[in-house]
Amino acid sequence: MIYLKLLVAWLLRTGIRAITFPLKSALARRWVRAMLRRLHNILIKAGLAAEIEKVRDALATLASPPPPPEPPSPATPGLISVNPHNIRLYELFLRAQLAQDGQFVTSDTLYGAGFQPPHRGLILRHDVDYRPDKIPLFVDIERQLGIRSDIHVIVDESNYALAPHASYLRDLAAEGFCIGLHTTAPLVEDFFTHLRREIETFKNLLGFSPTVFSIHGPPGPPLRPPNWSEVRVNFLERIGPRLASFGFNGSHNISGVSRWIEDTGVGGEFSYLKEDWVNPPITPGAILGVLTHPCHWITWPCPWLSDATDFSREHPTLKPLLDKALSRPQGDQPC
Predict the structure, then answer these.
(1) Which of 86, 150, 158, 305 is most buried by a 10 A CB count?
(2) Strands 270-274 and 287-292
(3) Nearest to residue 214, comparing CAs of 277, 280, 264, 155?
(4) Residues with Cβ < 8 Å from 60, sequence gap 6 or more?
(5) Span 59-85, pLDDT tens digits
(6) What are residue 212's DSSP bridge partners?
C-alpha cells in the first residue's frame, strides 16, 4: 500500500509540472493522463478512497486546456529626450496632432461662455519660470501653424524682469495668445494681498488684467517647503470661491483640463520627455493640457529630427510621430 501512495504522489507532482509548462510538455500531459487512468483502476481495486479522489482531481485538471500565459506587464515608458530639448520635436508634436484633427484652444475660449469641448481638444501652456527670452521659440512655430497658446508669466521679479518683454507680450495678446499670471502667492503668508499686488503689476506692465492664473511651483529645497502640497491645496481651496472677485475666469489648477502631459522636470535644472508624451491618448470631449517650460528648450540642429531619416525612421516611438507630422503639408501660412 505504501508504494501505491508514493506512486500517486510522484505522478501528481509530475502532472502539476506538466500543467505548469504546457507549451513544452504536451506529450508529458498525455503520458500522465494515461498513467493516472491506469492507476485509478488499481486504486479502486485496492480500496484507497483518498488517493482515488486525488487522481480524479488530477485527471479533471489535465483534461482542461492549459491556462493561457499571463500577458506581459506594460513597460515603463522610456525617455525620448532630456533637456535641452530640441524645439523641432515640439513642432513635430503639433503637426502630428493637427494631422489627427486635433483642435487647440486657449484659456480665453476654455473659460468663455458656452464653450463646447471639441472631439480632440488640446491646450498649450508655457510656464515662463526663468527665460522669457525663449518664448519666441514656441510662438514662432505656433504662428506658422495657425495655433494659439497660453503664456503664463511671473511678475514679482523673483526670477526675472518682465518689463523688457512687455511690448512683445502685448502684441501676442492682440494676436489671440492668452497671457496669464504664473503666481508665486501660495508661499506668502498673506497670499490674497500678494495676489492682488501681482494682478496690479501685471496690469501696469501689459495694460490689461489677467483672466487666468496658474501656480508657480518652487524648484526644490530650501525654496520648496516640505509641506508644499498642503500649502498649494490650501491656497486653491481659499481662492477657488473668490476667482471672480480677483477678475479671473478660471485656473488650470482648478478646472477645465482633464489631464496634463509636460516636459517633466526638477525645478529649473532638469527636464525630460517620456515616450508617452509623443502620442498621448485624448479623451473625446475632454481637454488635454500640454505644459512646457521654455527654459528647457533650444534651437538645436539635429539631422535625425530635421530630416526624419535613418534612426528616427526605425525608432518604435518616434516613427509614428514623424509619419503623422510629416503627412501634414509643410507650407503652412501664418494666420
Answers:
(1) 150
(2) unpaired
(3) 155
(4) none
(5) 565 555 555 655 555 566 677 888 889
(6) 250
Q: Which residues of 123-138 are buried (b: 16+ CB within 10 A; e: fewer)?
A: bbbbbbbbbbebbebb
CA-atom Rg of the chain in angstroms:
31
pLDDT digits (tens, 9 = 90+) for 103-130: 999 999 999 999 999 999 999 999 999 9
SS3 state at 250: strand
Residue 47: exposed, middle, or buried by beta-carbon count in 10 A (0-12, 13-18, 19+)? exposed
What CA–CA distance (Å, rounded) separates 132 from 294?
8
Q: What's the DSSP call for residue 50?
A: H
Helix (H, G, I), strand (E, B) or coil at 280: coil
- Check pLDDT > 70 for residue 51: no
Predicted TM-score (pTM) of this structure: 0.71
270-301 per-residue burial string, b: 16 or more CB within 10 A, e: under 16: ebbbbbebbbeebeeeebbbbbbbbbbbeeee
Q: Which amino acid is at 301?
A: P
**pLDDT tens-digit profile of 250-259?**
999 999 999 9
pLDDT band at 17 (very low <50, low <70, confident <90, very high): very low
Handedness of CA 287, 175, 152, 204 (dihedral sign): negative
| 51, burial (CB in 10 Å: exposed 0-12, middle 13-18, buried 19+) | buried
Q: Which of 185, 85, 94 is nearest to 141 (CA)?
A: 94
Residue 67 grid cell: 491556462
CA-closest candidate to residue 195, choices 178, 173, 215: 215
| Distance of alpha carbon 153 from alpha carbon 240, whole angstroms | 20
d(CA 243, CA 252): 12
DSSP secondary structure of 254-275: TSS-SEEEE--EETTTEEEEEG
Dihedral (C-alpha) 261, 262, 266, 272: value to the nearest 10 degrees? Answer: 100
pLDDT at 5: 56
